[in-house]
Amino acid sequence: MISIGYMSIISMLSHVFFIYLTWQAVQSINIDYFIREGKVKEARVLMILVTIAVGTLVSNFILDIIQWSQDLIYLF
Asked: What pTM does this model have?
């Protein structure tokens, strides 16, 4: 039961970390060319949603790799 609690904490921290890391990366992209005049609020919402989606995907990938490597002991 304790290991489930640890994995939950690691998962939450991983998601927050990778969402933050993705947000920093997205901030370096100049998307002013693609934004219509008067649609800045919508563009910001889109950037936030893209950041959450990409950060979560990366975090899930890393967590899956960790889980799979722990499950290798059952192979032998």
From this structure: 0.83
Do residues 73 and 39 touch, judged by C-beta distance below 8 A? no
Q: Is the pLDDT of residue 48 over 80?
A: yes
Q: Return the half-sphere exposure (C-beta side, CA atoms, 13 A cut-off) of residue 53.
A: 6
**Total domains, the chain:** 1
End-to-end CA distance of the chain: give it in Å, rounded: 24
> What domain range includes position 6?
2-74
Q: What does the pLDDT read at residue 5?
A: 84
DSSP state of 17: H
In one-letter notation, the amino acid at residue 22 is T
Residue 15: which residues within 8 A CB-CB, separation 6 or more? 55, 56, 59
Summarize pLDDT for 14-46 with one digit per residue, the tens. Answer: 999 999 999 999 999 888 788 888 888 888 999
- The length of the chain is 76
